[in-house]
Amino acid sequence: xxxxxxxxxxxxxxxxxxxxxxxxxPVADGHVTDATRLRALVPTLVELADxxxxxxxxxxxxxxxxxxxxxxxxxxxxxxxxxxxGRPVTFVKDCAGAEAEAEIAQLEAGAVVVCENTRFHKGExxxxxxxxxxxxxxxxxxxxxxxxxxxxxxxxxxxxxxxxPSFAGRAMEAxxxxxxxxxxxxxxxVAAVVGGAKVSTKLELLEHLVTKVDHLMIGGxxxxxxxxxxxxxxxxxxxxxxxxxxxxxxxxxAEKAGCTVHLPYDVxxxxxxxxxxxxxxxxxxxxxxDEMILDLGPAAVEALADALKTCxxxxxxxxxxxxxTPPFEAGTLSLARTAAALTQAGGLVSxxxxxxxxxxxxxxxxxxxxxxVSTAGGAFLEWMEGKSLPGVEALRRASELRRPAR
Length: 406
Fold this sequence. Notes:
Elements: E1 16-20, E2 27-28, E3 31-32, H1 36-50, E4 54-58, H2 75-85, E5 90-92, H3 98-105, E6 112-115, H4 122-125, H5 129-136, E7 141-144, E8 166-168, H6 170-184, E9 190-194, H7 203-209, E10 215-218, H8 220-229, H9 244-257, E11 260-262, E12 266-270, E13 279-283, E14 292-296, H10 298-308, E15 313-317, H11 330-344, E16 349-353, H12 355-364, E17 372-374, H13 378-384, H14 390-397
Parallel strand pairs: 1-4, 1-7, 4-6, 5-6, 7-8, 9-10, 9-15, 10-11, 15-16, 16-17
Antiparallel strand pairs: 2-3, 12-13, 12-14
């Protein structure tokens, strides 16, 4: 690994450790409705606290427009984190400044605190070194355990790594190791499942993947654009007809790279998009003018499953159909269960990520059966596109950093 982890941090008893987590979780009526990101942070916080560190959690929350406001305060999330940890979590009303420094100075070894929303300060998103230095005065070590925020070069994700010894937390470490297995140095053949509504949102991803994988399996509304580019009449399906030339360019690049692109040859169609709407399975060349494609057909899914059985590695982003609306979930759930079974049998390394993807895999009941499922959204997509992530690059750069004297 080209970054340091908690295995390298040394003795932290009585020392202040700044942990950049992702506490940007959904809250409704004052309560956290999905604690997945909080649970991901627990191993790092428990390990540091049990070693006697004074653990100081930093995070953004929402997009506060004009500085501090009650709606975007992290105080409610601190209470939820306490429940996940099974130990007290104190809330500090700022993440920088004299008052925060004074509160943290009173902490006992093993204590855990959550500081107020980093985005209440304009210097956070500007990656202002003066603001980073103010936050840095709260800690002796820095641990980034928020891969989902690693695509942002902010003061709490990048700036702090210039100021103190910096390490990856356990969730960040697991994520980076999984991603390396999936596309960094994977075992071939490699398959990528890419779905979602629009080609325009994933064009860079497709262009990158055709140079990296052996099988590119395209589903969702974006498959319609590729079908239309090949002259298929997709009726009134969601389709970006203006991207036909770019879709053909992706197919051409895939052919030159030796990547097999899988497009559906049978689909599930309906004349209206609603739950339990009358539907039928049709060959892609038999979609009527008043019909829309809403899922892959059973033969297409079976063909993808057969191809997947020949692969050693899978990376998945995006559903194959309108999985939130029955009966158009069948294709996504079926292939997800095939991938899960292959993973459990030991023949496939499976890594998936993205909000809709996680929701679909949860619906299929297979999240624990995949090798790794990322809760990151933008960061996971940018990684799949081959982009450098500032938060990750900062950890790599900081791997030899020594803390300057103050």
